[in-house]
Amino acid sequence: MAINSYLSVLTLNINGLNAPIKRHRVTEWIRKQDPSICCLQETHFRPKDTFRLKVRGWRTIYHANGQQKKAGVAILISDNLDFKIKTVSRDAEGHYIIIKESIHQEYLTIVNINYNITIVEDFNTSLTSRDRSCKQKINKETMALNDTLDQMDLTDIFRTFHPKAAEYTFFSSAHGTFSRIDHILEHKPALNKYKKIEIIPCIFSDHNAMKLEIKTQEKVWKGNKYWRLKNILLKNEWANQAVKEEIKKYMEVNENDNTTTQNLWDTAKAVIRGKYIAIQ
């Protein structure tokens, strides 16, 4: 596989993934878009349903789900991305999931929110009057949200790259209006690390997707070179103690009623692998 000089982050409000035909279309669409990281909102999965989402080439998937078929978010990580997971946090109702990871010793925090990552927010509201097809003034609630984002030093990446663009991610059939209510946010000082951002048309959801390309100076893609654990490490007392301590820290942070056994185990494998890579 060719080495890319950037990572790509794809985000989409999928509006339900319980229908088998729709899941098939979504998985094919993800493979075609080929993102490094894919953030989905409104999966409408319950914890026992998450196994149904399988995408060849994106085996590592982190979910947050409630007990009813509503809300739900997921983050999919490409198999070709050499990353080490640090922590995973999620709420019990499936409104958000936060993962902290490192990619070639560079730390990245992804916040996937359903109401869409820093980076991704589906606020279900436009941040400026330019984000609506109807020229309606923004209300007090949106002004307060913008003030909060400004205090947090966060900015809308799409509007920064396209200050005058009239492009939208959602069509309201009830009002006959277009709007951009899906956003990708980042801290203002970090904007120079982004290459481009665009809206991707999507026919199987009532939202369009957004795709962000992040510049990187490191070799991120593994290609056909696979890492293997050296068996000698399994007999190394110091290495085994370091791995045990890493597992203990991971369990203290992530073992709770909101984390399914399957997600806990899948993430633990990634943590253990990352620790052995660091030692090796």
Rg calc: 20 Å
What fraction of the residues are assigned to beta strands by DSSP?
Answer: 25-35%
> Helical amount among residues, as a percent range?
10-25%
First CA to last CA: what distance? 25 Å
Q: Please state the structural category.
A: alpha+beta
Low-confidence stretches: 116-123, 218-224
Secondary structure tally, helices:
5
Q: Using the alpha-carbon principal axes, give the shape.
A: globular
Task: Sum up the structure in keywords.
6-stranded mixed beta sheet, alpha+beta, 24% helix, 280 residues, 5 helices
Could you give the topology of this structure?
Blueprint: E1 6-13, H1 20-33, E2 37-41, E3 60-64, E4 73-77, E5 83-90, E6 96-103, E7 106-114, E8 120-122, H2 140-151, E9 154-156, H3 157-161, E10 170-172, E11 177-179, E12 182-187, E13 194-200, E14 209-215, H4 237-254, H5 261-279
Parallel strand pairs: 1-2, 7-8
Antiparallel strand pairs: 1-14, 2-4, 3-4, 5-6, 6-7, 8-12, 9-12, 10-11, 13-14
